[in-house]
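Hello Y.,

Per our agreement to keep a running log of every chain we model this quarter, I'm adding this entry. I've kept the format consistent with earlier entries: sequence first, then predicted structure.
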Amino acid sequence: MDPAERDAIGWAEGIRAGEVSAAELLAAAEAAASARNPALNAIVTPLWDAPRRSPDAGEGPLAGVPCLVKDLGVTFAGVRHTAGSRLGADVVGTVDSPYARHLLEAGLVIAGVTNTPEFGGSYLSESALFGPTRNPWDLERTAGGSSAGAAAAVAAGIVPVAHGNDAGGSLRAPGSCCGVFALKPSRGRSPRENPLGTVLGDWQVEHVLTRSVRDSAAVLAAGGPPPDIERELRPRRIAVTLDGRGATVDTACKAAVVKAAAALEAQGHSVDVVEPPSTDPAAVSAAAGLWVDAVAAMVHDMEARAGRHAGADDLEPRTASLLREAEGRGAEQRANDWTALHQLCRDLDAFFNVWDVWLTPALSEPPPPISLGQQTLAPEAMIDRDEGFAMYLPLANITGGPAVSLPVATTDAGLPIGVHAMGRRGEDEVLLRLARSLERAGEWTCGPGRVPVVG
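Predicted structure for the entry above:
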């Protein structure tokens, strides 16, 4: 038995029908991890011998299905929680956090914790604490970030579903790099892990990476009724943008968008190529400034958990640089930044008054090679690289709207390429049904049984 043979709903149905037990499926996932994880470095804290389950183990739409959680944000009592940082290397969770309980309510069995860049601060998968997560489709390439281990584990078929979070594309970037489905839900659709009114509380959402659309919808609902993704989507107005917002886009990434747009047009949707909506240039620096504050907040939170201040060797150079920058920011600058981003939201609202869905490249290039020396780069160079790599992804976090990375294309060498789709706030079902229509039409490049050979 291989966990890659079915999606999560398929395995849950098999458990309910008595075809397989939850214990047998967990053992199969452990065997898959034993064979594949040494090459991937996706799982950093295994829980095979002491998995976390709901007291109502048989309840929930995905009861008995193994799942992994990202080593950032979500905590389980008694489980190591490092945020990918040497500062948190010895920190252990004290409670099951809100989204942890959400996963348990869905019936999922938490079988381990996955690798992430320090404090989720990169679209690539390098970590000084645990080392890089490698892409299952090419072990010399990045798995994306920051939900790197989660995407790699799902793509490699270790588990059918794995938790991640997304404050600027951290579900969608690794989803694109590893060729799995990633939904960033609308603000407020999933339980919040950070205080309301903070940058992370407003921007970051918790969800999962999956190979099927129905699995993503099931976890979104947890114990409640899932979104209706099978109902045919009435014709929508779809805007298509091929070029980057100041970044050069690889021809294969443009071709992936063209392919997806043609498939949607064949389904009856109205598709037009448009320029990106005009926005205030100040919004770019404003978003960067508020992200600096978010990193500082995460560092200080981890200092409180660790019971000590960060020392000279506790933080990676990029994080230390952002922390210093945050210390120099004042209340007036933060207020100006929020003003600029509120204007960006109004600009994008006006765009979505005309268009129902906006289709763009997910990333500016296919998954690049792992750069083990990336920590030696100047922090400014690392930030510029990331901004050019994931041009459109943060917009959905700022506006609060839903967005997905659609696994619908590959390069000639077989590397995954995701296509990004963004919708209006609250219209998550539109994107889920659009994704499901592409999945039904055979455009999907992932799914049960479609996994790379690793290990």
